[in-house]
Specification:
Elements (H helix, E strand, L loop, with lengths): L7 H4 L13 H12 L10 E6 L2 H21 L4 H18 L3 E7 L10 H4 L2 H25 L3 E5 L6 H8 L5 E8 L13 H4 L4
Antiparallel strand pairs: 1-2, 2-4, 3-4
Helix pairs in contact: 2-6, 3-4
Length: 204
């Protein structure tokens, strides 16, 4: 029998089209559990995840993105690089609309009420930078766990074009910092290229 071994880190791809099949709750919970296992500075766990399952909310988010991107396109009409990025963000808004599951990632930024000692309270900006790194780790954990569970995923940064507007419309408690889309891949995604090891590692 040809057993297919999943190697989550090497097999993960950004997936941008999903079939209509649903994802069971246990799988979603496993993926969220992987997120909460991520390391964080002083174990502060500075994240909050909002799981969006209804098409009404996905439509609302997608429409807010489209409206905001239109405004940004009008004010950046002469900049072709920005226009291309905004067009890509429009594609992302469509991916969100058609995604089976959307997870909004918020930054639980309580850095003003530190209980970790002086060294951290005088390094406010550094702490924020470290906390945001740890949110990245929690998102990556979700993508890896999704792959391990046979699901496709996409890390969605384009949502930030309308971060404030989406936060306000959904009455989110903390700043929206990122999002993740999950679903069963419709087709096998191509492997993206990577820089060569020699170009990214400096041995000393
Ligand atoms: C922080 C972050 C934000 C991203 N935002 C988007 C996005 O909004 N839309 C999108 O299509 N892809 C997005 N991506 C996916 C990248 O385009 C993708 O990871 C990269 O091209 C490498 O491809 P791979 O994930 O298949 O290895 C994002 C990735 C990261 C890490």
């Amino acid at each position: 029998m040809n057993k297919c071994i999943v190697r989550p880190i090497t097999d993960r791809r950004s997936v941008r089209s999903f079939d209509r099949s649903s994802i069971d709750q246990d799988t979603i919970k496993r993926i969220l559990y992987a997120a909460l296992l991520a390391p964080s500075p002083k174990n502060r766990q500075p994240w909050l995840f909002t799981v969006v399952t209804t098409s009404e909310i996905k439509t609302l988010i997608s429409n807010i993105m489209i409206d905001k991107i239109k405004i940004l396109k009008e004010s950046n009409n002469n900049d072709s690089t920005v226009r291309i990025e905004l067009d890509n963000a429009l594609i992302t808004s469509d991916i969100i609309l058609n995604s089976p599951i959307l997870i909004l990632v918020q930054y639980r930024n309580n850095a003003t009420c530190l209980d970790d000692g002086l060294s951290w309270s005088i390094m406010h900006n550094e702490l924020e930078a470290l906390e945001i790194q740890s949110i990245g780790a929690s998102v990556e954990n979700m993508l890896i766990e999704a792959t391990a569970n046979g699901l496709g995923s996409l890390w969605v940064g384009d949502i930030m074009y309308a971060g404030t507007e989406i936060s306000t419309a959904l009455n989110l408690k903390y700043p929206l910092i990122s999002a993740v889309v999950l679903g069963h891949s419709e087709k096998k995604s191509a492997k993206s290229t990577r820089k060569k090891m020699k170009d990214i590692v400096d041995w000393r």
